[in-house]
Write a structure and sequence with these properties.
Elements lengths: L3 H17 L9 H4 L3 H9 L18 H13 L5 H17 L2 H12 L5 E4 L15 E5 L2 E9 L9 E7 L8 E7 L5 E7 L5 E14 L3 E2 L5 H13 L9 H6 L9 H29 L6 H24 L10 H13 L10 H13 L1
Parallel strand pairs: 1-4
Antiparallel strand pairs: 2-3, 3-7, 4-5, 5-8, 6-7
Helix pairs in contact: 1-4, 5-6, 5-7, 9-10, 10-12
């Protein structure tokens, strides 16, 4: 699909049809709180998932630029994409790069069809920003490994079909980490919800107690888990979800804005910033395509993008309370504003805190 404009038009037509038939209700932060398996499967059936994956597995054999186009349109529409998001964004590229032939054949077609939800087990109670301090252990046993330990802040684990676990296989700080694919549900895996202030559940604590994982479910090589996890985090930290999470709200608020008002000026500034982030993101996509997952543009985009997202919630309040508004905001806008308020505190934390990422950027600039 070399014509990105044609692809964008295809996605918009799909979304217009979905809205017309009542296929979804727009949300802010839809890649985290918009879980709808059937929507993801319809997206897969329309040929709009896994565009960057090889044709032999059902993909389009395209590039990351095509996934970027699809992602932009889905997020701008507030579409419920959580069910497939982690699977397509970081799990599929990792399987393609490090997985066995059997793993590729088993997982990639299901990702492309929008059939699986994947959780990522990285952070732990005593190893959040410092992932090298992971204590979850994997011990050798006949034909595989036994995993014991606890992960926390795991998005969507209670809904996932599998979780990719970073575990310690030896005492070495970085070289002692490996990755494992644990299919769910599993009787030796306990998943406890962590409710948000809104009462909704998106995060979890996941405990593993002697969970058996066959050798065939080791992802990549033993001892390469740190390197692989850092590559996956590069895919996680970039993308339009780092600056478009509140766009459904901002679009809904345009109705009632007076020309030449303070609200119009602020809205224009937001759109200008988004254009800048899109330009940076296009460069980041080129890095990912070339395998350069250590480029400092990646943590930089995540840092400034999520700070921007948080600021847009304050901008939204200013627009809502502008006395020059021609009419009150819609009920849908009010719901989206409340949603954005609940989600905003997590923007700068998930995917690595901005404080840690600023350190990574600083070190990169000094090299």
């Amino acid at each position: 699909m070399a014509d990105l404009n044609q692809l964008r038009a295809q996605v918009r037509a799909f979304l217009e049809n979905e809205r017309a038939r009542g296929g979804f209700t727009p949300h802010c932060d839809p890649w985290l709180i918009g879980f709808d398996r059937e929507f993801s499967q319809r997206l897969g059936a329309a040929g709009l998932l896994g565009l960057m994956l090889p044709v032999e597995f059902g993909g389009a054999g395209g590039t990351m630029a095509e996934r970027l186009v699809v992602s932009e349109e889905l997020l701008a529409a507030g579409a419920p994409v959580t069910a497939h998001w982690f699977a397509e964004r970081q799990f599929a590229p990792s399987i393609l790069r490090h997985g066995t032939d059997q793993q590729k054949a088993h997982w990639l077609p299901r990702v492309i069809r929008g059939e699986i939800c994947i959780a990522v087990g990285l952070s732990e109670p005593d190893a959040g920003s410092d992932l090298a301090a992971v204590r979850t252990k994997a011990e050798r046993t006949d034909g595989g490994w036994l995993i014991t330990g606890t992960k926390i802040w795991t998005s969507g684990a209670h809904l996932a079909d599998a979780i990719v676990v970073l575990a310690r296989t030896s005492g070495s700080k970085h070289e002692g980490l490996s990755q494992f694919i644990v299919e769910l549900p599993n009787s030796n895996v306990t998943i406890r919800g962590i409710n948000m202030i809104s009462g909704e559940r998106h995060f979890n604590e996941v405990h593993f107690e002697d969970v058996y994982v066959a050798d065939g479910d080791v992802l990549g090589e033993i001892g390469q888990g740190w390197k692989q996890a850092m590559e996956e985090l590069a895919f996680e930290r970039v993308g339009p979800e780092r600056y478009l999470s509140t766009l459904p709200l901002l679009q809904e608020l345009t109705s009632g804005i007076s020309d030449c008002s303070m609200s119009a000026e602020q809205y224009g500034a937001v759109i200008a910033d988004i254009r800048t982030f899109r330009t940076i993101n296009q460069r980041v996509v080129e890095h990912l395509e070339s395998g350069n997952t250590a480029a400092i543009d990646i943590p930089l985009l995540k840092t400034i993008g999520t700070n921007f997202e948080q600021s847009t919630v304050l901008t939204a309040f200013t627009i809502v309370n502008d006395p020059s508004r021609e009419h009150a905001i819609t009920g849908e806008a009010a719901e989206l504003l409340l949603e954005a308020q609940y989600q905003a505190p997590s923007f700068t934390i998930r995917g690595g805190t901005n404080e840690v990422l600023r350190g990574i950027v600083s070190k990169g600039l000094l090299r």
